[in-house]
Amino acid sequence: MMMRSMVLMLFGAHLAYAGTHSLRYFYTAVSGDIDFPEFTAVGLVDEGQFMYFDSNGMKAVPKTEWMRQNEGADYWDSQTQGLIGTHQSFKNNIQIAKERFNQSKGVHTNQRMYGCEWDDETGATNVFFQDGYDGEDYLHLDMKELTWISPVQQGFLTIQKWNKNTAQKEYTKQYFSTECIEWLKKYLQYGKNSLQKTVSPQVSLLQKDSSSPMMCHVTGFYPKEVSITWQRNGQDHDEDVDLGELLPNEDGTFQKTSTLRVTADERKKNKFSCVVEHKGITIREVLEEDSVPIAIIVGVVAVLILLVVGGVVGFVVYRRKKGFKPVPQNQSGDNSSAGSS
């Protein structure tokens, strides 16, 4: 039985997808005996996957219809060649890292996330570049100072090498300040019909038993911006609340959860509700006093693996532990700007 007393309110929902947009690339290199491609690359626009490459297939491929329609063979050949080079670079990098960490056996990972954001309302931009090794931060780019920084001693030789490379730093500055944003805008134009869609969320309250935390599960919404809050007796309540990560669904929509820890006595004496706001729509799920708790299906955990595709799996593992490309490819908007370690 679903616990609900739903109130739905419309406040002039916008059909145009305005706000902050992002272009991100995720690389994952793996060494050791593991049933996973040695190298994967995933490109995302507004958190939706639009391209994919791995070392098994050795071919960059589109993951959306709007990319298939707007970029031809030359584009994908260029992407493929560039990522083949990146694969080799990451193989070298992971071997160097193993030596610096004095490792000879076991499974090890080297991951990278980089890209840019653009607010189409204010014009503000932001960039990001992070490397991780075995689930820990390895180095990142301080764009304001145009300086590479490493929190671990094993990364010092790498950042010293990169920080001394003036030509590389100038290219990095040009790529992140201009080229990345230009390609983001181009991809947004390509996929405007798909990216401007609005899909309202489905909201459910889940609880294992009367003494367990309450979970507000919000899924099936697009775009990704969503607000999840709790109320007690109609008043905002933000104590003992844990907000989960945004996760992609297989159909291109998103899901997110918020967990509220309350005692059985608190639940009995008060009326709690989860309030979800998305693109001008507000949905309120109310936990009625006489509602029967339903078990949280264990499959929800498995869904996290099924819904995250390709190389993104590696990044989600990295981000969960720490809380989180290639040779230059000037005709794609895809460029890691950094070379070997």
Element-by-element helix/strand order: EEEEEHHEEEEHHHEEEEEEEHEEHH
How does the helix and strand content classify structurally? alpha+beta
- Poorly predicted regions: 1-17, 292-331
Largest sheet: 8 strands, antiparallel
- Rg from C-alpha positions? 22 Å
The helix content, as a percent range, equals: 25-40%
**What percentage of amino acids are in beta strands?**
25-35%
In angstroms, what separates the terminal alpha carbons? 55 Å
Average pLDDT, to the nearest integer?
81
Q: Helical segment tally?
A: 8
Structure description:
By secondary structure, the chain is an alpha+beta fold. The protein contains 8 helices and 18 strands. The strands form 3 sheets. It has an 8-stranded antiparallel sheet, with helices on both faces. It has a 5-stranded antiparallel sheet with strand order 1-18-17-12-13, with no helix packed on it. The longest helix has 28 residues, at 73-100. It is globular.
Could you outline the blueprint of secondary structure elements for this entry?
Blueprint lengths: L6 E4 L9 E12 L7 E7 L2 E7 L6 E2 L2 H6 L2 H28 L7 E12 L5 E9 L2 E7 L4 E3 L6 H9 L1 H25 L1 H4 L6 E5 L7 E8 L5 E6 L2 E3 L3 E3 L3 E2 L5 E7 L3 H6 L2 E7 L2 E7 L11 H9 L4 H11 L19
Antiparallel strand pairs: 1-18, 2-3, 2-6, 3-4, 4-5, 6-7, 7-8, 8-9, 10-11, 11-16, 12-13, 12-17, 14-16, 15-16, 17-18
